[in-house]
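Hi all, long-time lurker, first post. I run a small reading group and we've been trying to get comfortable going from sequence to structure in the token notation. Rather than ask abstract questions, I figured I'd post a concrete chain and ask someone more experienced to write out its structure so we can walk through it together at our next meeting. Sequence below, copied exactly:
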Amino acid sequence: MNSSPKQNNGLMCFQKSPYFRLHFLRTLCQSFSQSTKGAKPFILKKCVALLLTCTSSEQKLKQIHAFSIRHGVPLSNPDMGKHLIFTLVSLSSAMSYAHRIFTQLHNPNIFTWNTMIRGYAETETPRPALDVYSCMHMKSIDPDTHTYPFLLKAVAKLTAVSEGEMIHSVSVKNGFESLVFVQNALLHMYAACGRAESAHKMFDLMNEKNLVTWNTVINGYALNGMPNEALTLYREMCLEGVEPDGFSIVSLLTACAELWALGLGKRVHVYMLKVGLVKNSHASNALLDLYAKCGSIREAKCVFGEIKNKCVVSWNSLIVGLATNGFGHEALGFFKELERQGHVPTEVTFIGVLYACSHCGMVDEGFAYFRRMKEEYHLVPRIEHYGCMVDLLGRNGLVKKAYDYIQNMPMKPNAVIWRTLLGACTVHGHLTLGEIATTQILQFESKHSGDYVLLSNLYASERRWTDVQQIRTAMLKEGVKKTPGFSFVEMANRVYEFVMGDRSHGQSEEIYAKLEEITKLLKGEGYRPHTENVLADIEEEEKETAVSYHSEKIAIAFMLINTPPGTPIRVVKNLRVCGDCHIAIKHISKVYGREIIVRDRSRFHHFRDGYCSCRDYW
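-- Answer (accepted) --
Happy to help. Here is the structure in token form:
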């Protein structure tokens, strides 16, 4: 029998509107006798249909659930329970409701067990996923091919590597380890747990590798502080003919940022433009982060301006990047714009804001932002935020207040907090507090050479040479070696490294001739060597020679010889730039008309026309 146009219209409405579907179902079911057994299969079928199309809110799901109960479909019905749980799991906030239903099911099938594991694995507290798996094991329910990827995702979030290794063993025993999606889940688990080498070992044993496989291992290296390995594997992937996607690019840019490989990062940017990946928000945010971390703040702002759908991650990358590059006032300006556009700042946002205040000497403003963070945005400060506040006071010369602030912190200070205070004591000459800070630091780390050096410098500034010698003797006794200072530059896709007084380079004669030329030109500009930085009991002439051959000066001389006039010079140094080099580089930027960007242990310095972005406050 053909249906009438009126009936067809009704069916079209049923398909289009979930509200009409529920009303239509209720009206239709009322026409059947509730005591008739034949009605239940029809009701069950329609309830399942509604569940499959209604995932917008927990409340609507509860209405469908209540309707099914009123019309005689028991919760223990495996089809109803399975689909209701599956739909609830799509709402991460409804896991407790899904769990209550799950506990009432009789003999749930493996699909339902997997659904519960997946639901918990995708929440912020994935531990119950492992509990569900344990319960499943106790009931002798055999896992299938879908169990392990969900379960290993939970393990990766928990970084529970020992439990992950046990699950790995069970997957081998059950014959599922050879499946590529199980192997990819295992790779991700090992990488997330900091076992990049284990991940790569498994990667080498895999016969079938897809793009997810390559991305997982490359990302594992990038996130575990092994950027060189990440770049090497990326090259292998390209040689194998595997086309990178957005995830590949994010990992590659992360590795470039870690290595300060700006040249390679720019080539990745060109590739992104070529294949349209600049529209990928994750890749664009990684590109923005790369430019900011490489000191290319103009390019970072350009990328930021081109991101159409800016999220808080985009704002955070720019604000933190501006702050660490010495543009604190501009960073605070972008923070205000973030608020004007209705974005909600996160803990990371405030780290950038407080860092900006610290490196611009804005003490009152820093404390005001710290209060707003707690009172207005209800964010609980972490140890990093308290570290910024200690640094804010210490840099401004308020060393005693910084010490009092540490004493009143709501959490126990770590070595970084005390080291921040020690650094401030060294700069501003507070010997007693410096000794206290050193005593505290040595309780956490007794082999950190920088702590001994800071205290030694503090004694040397007071000309207490006997104490300096005792510190050096203690370092020898404890087997602590001073970290040698070095600087490196990138040119023509190659990295060149220099140490103080370095004469190992093939252009050494030219470099040292250039250094002599630089010294003469700078003295004509009024520069005099800042020998107060040479904290040793030697003659003044020897001090002047020592500061002339610091690694960053050698690196700059090398770049002046080998790059065209006007080309920016980028230098990375592993230690803090000394006062003399800071003064000298300001003069060099003016005399040679070069922008010189120096990234030291803690921040960037942008030198141009005789000025530095830090405004001599670092």
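A couple of things your group might point at:
Residues 1-39, 535-544 have pLDDT under 50 and may be disordered.
The longest helix spans residues 508-524.
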